[in-house]
Write a structure and sequence with these properties.
Length: 132
């Protein structure tokens, strides 16, 4: 019974327009397996590039940095010199954004060459929001 339902679901998804199929794909990628999402990979790449010579406090440039728990699944760090905390996205374009996963999905759409309106539909925001 379950196999038939799954087969029907796949047929339904195959009949969707490309934009709707992309939305389903992004949803599955984001909610079913968040560890392998584009966002997770981008954050990991950002961390490797930014801190390739060792961790450095973005506030005082001290190298005395330790892990300091996690916030919303993302690693936090604390500087032993100035006692300030930071994340991998501190002082980047993704810092303090409320739509981090959506922006990462939008960047993925840009790399695929989608139009602004098509990207907005896939991300689930208005095309005007993509400018903020």
């Amino acid at each position: 019974m379950m196999a038939k339902a799954f087969s029907n679901l796949l047929k339904y998804i195959d009949n969707l327009p490309h934009t709707k199929r992309e939305q389903v794909y992004q949803w599955v990628k984001r909610y079913v397996d968040p560890t392998s999402s584009v966002g997770g990979r981008l954050i990991n790449e950002m961390r490797e590039t930014r801190f390739k010579d060792g961790f450095e406090c973005p506030h005082c440039t001290s190298e005395h940095v330790v892990r300091f728990g996690k916030v919303k699944g993302r690693q936090r760090y604390r500087c032993k010199s100035c006692l300030k905390t930071f994340t991998d996205t501190t002082n980047t374009v993704l810092y303090r954004t409320r739509k981090g996963d959506e922006w990462i999905t939008f960047v993925d759409c840009m790399f695929k060459g989608y139009s602004l309106r098509k990207s907005a539909e896939i991300v689930g925001v208005t095309w005007v929001t993509l400018f903020y």
